[in-house]
Design brief:
Blueprint lengths: L1 E5 L9 E5 L9 E10 L2 H8 L10 E2 L3 E8 L11 E5 L8 E5 L3 E3 L6 H21 L7 E4 L5 H12 L3 E6 L5 H8 L3 E4 L5 H7 L5 E6 L3 H7 L3 E9 L13 H6 L2 E4 L2 H7 L1 H16 L7 E6 L3 H9 L6 E5 L3
Parallel strand pairs: 9-10, 9-12, 10-11, 12-13, 13-14, 15-16
Antiparallel strand pairs: 1-2, 1-4, 3-5, 3-7, 3-16, 5-6, 6-8
Helix pairs in contact: 2-3, 8-9
């Protein structure tokens, strides 16, 4: 089968190539999936460089999440051959076939295409776990989402709006503002440069934000600490800026806000019943057409480099989805 293999960790993707390899061999507890679509996530890029917190040793097949059809499963599995599923694992999705732990799969939501399903899992699971599971987001609350043109940021904007929150979407690229507005109609879209707290204060009537959802880190995180309301929550999602920010603990003490660390995948692994419930809620919202992932571009796996480079160059508004199989 064809698979996108990371043969060596490099800064410039020179250690990545599309190769012919033997299909994976399923072991008990796993489900063999014929992959129909797989989506690119920022950790996929980081893992080619050895910069993600999970550091698989080369060679490995890249790809966190997929959508496809079940080929084979345990006799007592909830999945049967022909079932349409979404999910994934830490690696292995960018291939024609993948073996995935059963707990890492969910049924493809009704009315959702394979491409949409592949683009939904990790981003919406992260958004739901952070906003609702850990922060208890309620209708009418103000939410600031940074990195709002990326897959996770857009999912957070979409989900927060679906839950009735008032949303400020922040992007580092002014040219992306119109696309974000068109996709999900947040209450405001701002550029996250410099001292943007004043804009947030003006938009919220001085209240600031009950929840700040930050996948960016760095200077943006520093300014986010000024945008949280008293007793609010600042969710640390990631560091796409490249800098892990520091914070003096007197800041959350004086302002009375909480800093919440978010690892949605690890949360689901440690609390599988809650992970299953979260997947069920996301599927319900999707089948009701209340949420829908934004796809920037769909590419054959042979054009993997275009997708990775577009992500590295911050060209995307939404997800890259690779199409595989018939």
């Amino acid at each position: 089968m064809k698979a996108l293999r990371v043969l060596e960790l490099t800064e410039d993707l020179s250690g990545v190539s599309l190769n012919e390899v033997e299909p994976p061999e399923r072991i008990p507890g796993e489900v063999l999936v014929h992959v129909r679509a797989a989506s690119l996530n920022f950790p996929d890029l980081l893992m080619t460089q050895g910069k993600y917190q999970f550091k698989p040793r080369p060679p490995f097949t890249s790809g966190l999440e997929l959508a496809g059809e079940v080929i084979e499963a345990d006799t007592n599995s909830v999945f049967k051959p022909g079932d349409k599923v979404i999910g994934g694992n830490k690696t292995g999705a960018f291939a024609e076939f993948a073996c995935v732990p059963e707990r890492g799969l969910s049924p493809l939501p009704v009315g959702i295409s394979f491409a949409e399903g592949a683009a939904m899992g990790a981003a919406y699971s992260t958004a739901y776990t952070g906003l609702i599971e850990l922060c208890g987001l309620k209708a009418g609350q103000w939410v600031l989402v940074t990195g709002a043109s990326g897959g996770v940021g857009l999912a957070a904007v979409n989900l927060a709006k679906a839950m009735g929150a008032k949303v400020i979407a922040a992007t580092g690229v002014d040219a992306k503002r119109a696309q974000i507005e068109q996709l999900y109609a947040p209450d405001a879209v701002i550029v996250s440069e410099g001292r943007f707290r004043e804009q947030v204060s003006e938009i919220t009537g001085g209240k600031l934000c009950d929840v700040v959802f930050d996948p960016v880190g760095g200077d943006v995180f520093d300014e986010c600490t000024r945008c949280v309301s008293f007793a609010g929550k600042l969710v640390v999602v990631g560091f796409t800026s490249g800098r892990i920010a520091d914070i003096a603990t007197n800041i959350p003490l004086i302002k009375g806000f909480s800093i919440v660390g978010l690892r949605a995948g690890e949360y689901s692994r440690r609390f599988p019943e809650r992970g299953a419930a979260i997947s069920g809620e996301i599927a319900k919202l999707a089948s009701e057409d209340r949420i829908k992932p934004a796809i920037d571009r769909m590419l054959p796996l042979s054009q993997w480099r275009e997708g990775f480079e577009a992500m590295a160059n911050r060209e995307l508004v939404g997800k890259v989805v690779f199409e595989l199989g018939e």
